[in-house]
Specification:
- The complex is a heterodimer.
- By secondary structure, chain A is an alpha+beta fold.
- Chain A is built from 2 helices and 6 strands.
- Chain A has a single domain, classed as Hotdog Thioesterase (Thiol Ester Dehydrase, Chain A, Roll), CATH 3.10.129.
- In chain A, a hairpin with an 8-residue loop joins strand 5 and strand 6 (122-131).
- The longest helix of chain A has 22 residues, at 46-67.
- Chain B is of the alpha+beta class.
- Chain B has a single domain, classed as Hotdog Thioesterase (Thiol Ester Dehydrase, Chain A), CATH 3.10.129.10.
- Helix content of chain B is 22%, strand content 38%.
- The longest helix of chain B has 19 residues, at 60-78.
- The chains are: A alpha+beta, B alpha+beta.
């Protein structure tokens, strides 16, 4: 497993996000239920779910760029999150898929789920710009 | 006994709604409000950085800030506290927030129907004319469970 997977941002580490594993070269990220990610009592906060989705998207893109020997600085352009079901008091996972990887931009979709992989609690689409690290 | 129905006041409700859970962890605070808008503040914090080697705030906390500000502006426009759920939230990032700057989230409920609330807003770090991000969101009423926040 690439080290780049474990290089999570200070924000991601503060939120309790960790690496659960890897599937098809994509990191699967996770956090436990706890006060830090709770919205209304007993349920996940939408912002915390978004944070997990976004972090999984970046981790995937970073891993893919590292594999192809690219060291770009990533600039977020946008994220659209669809909330599909209330997040309950249990472990949450997220994994992304690169829909398009260009020279200057990447389009990534990410899903978050709890017990049932086939019933995601949220999905996100992200656009990320990539600029040369020394630019 | 019937309680007098007080109109929802975000200035009074925010400290209670924001003290627990994710919002409390982020340290979100009430800033200002009008008839259909609410502003919250996300204070600068070292451990919310999005990059290890640069003092740039992560984008995740901005989503949380705008989600909470959106909920509050909807209740403000409704004039009452009803259960709502976020259906969809889009954030367009214009630029990174400045180093050590607090970020203000301004959310406006521009359309309210029986079942849906439409919100737009910006996040800025001092100058509303030069936003960090624009957002658009759609929220849904959840009938029957007034405990849902």
């Amino acid at each position: 497993m690439s080290d780049s997977f474990s290089q999570l941002t200070p924000y991601a580490r503060s939120l309790g996000i960790s690496l659960a594993g890897e599937e098809d070269g994509a990191p699967v990220l996770t956090f436990d239920f706890g006060t830090m990610v709770e919205g209304r009592p007993g349920h996940l906060h939408g912002g915390a779910i978004s944070g997990l989705l976004e972090t999984a998207g970046y981790a995937l893109l970073r891993a893919e760029l590292t594999r192809s020997g690219r060291n770009h600085r990533l600039k977020p352009i946008n994220i659209t999150v669809q909330f599909l079901a209330a997040g309950k008091r249990r472990q949450t996972y997220a994994k992304g898929r690169i829909t398009k990887l260009g020279r200057r931009n990447a389009n990534i979709t990410v899903e978050a789920w709890q017990d049932d992989r086939d019933r995601p609690i949220a999905t996100a689409v992200m656009n990320i710009l990539m600029v040369e690290a020394d630019a | 006994m019937t309680e007098p129905s007080a109109r929802f006041d975000p200035a009074k409700a925010a400290p209670i709604l924001l003290q627990h859970g994710h919002a409390g962890w982020l340290g979100l605070k009430y800033h200002a409000h009008g008839e259909d808008w609410t502003e919250l503040v996300l204070p600068w914090r070292e451990d919310l950085l999005g990059e290890a080697d640069r003092p740039v705030l992560a984008s995740g906390p901005i989503v949380s800030l705008m989600d909470m500000a959106s909920g509050l502006c909807i209740w403000t426009r409704m004039g009452g506290f009803n259960a709502i759920a976020t259906l969809d939230l889009r954030v367009d990032y214009q630029r990174p927030a400045r180093d050590r700057a607090d970020v203000i989230g301004h959310a406006e409920c521009y359309k309210l129907t029986r079942s849906a609330a439409f919100v737009r807003g910006i996040a800025h770090d001092g100058d509303p004319a030069d936003p960090v991000a624009h957002i658009a969101g759609v929220f849904m009423s959840i009938q029957g469970d007034s405990r849902n926040v």
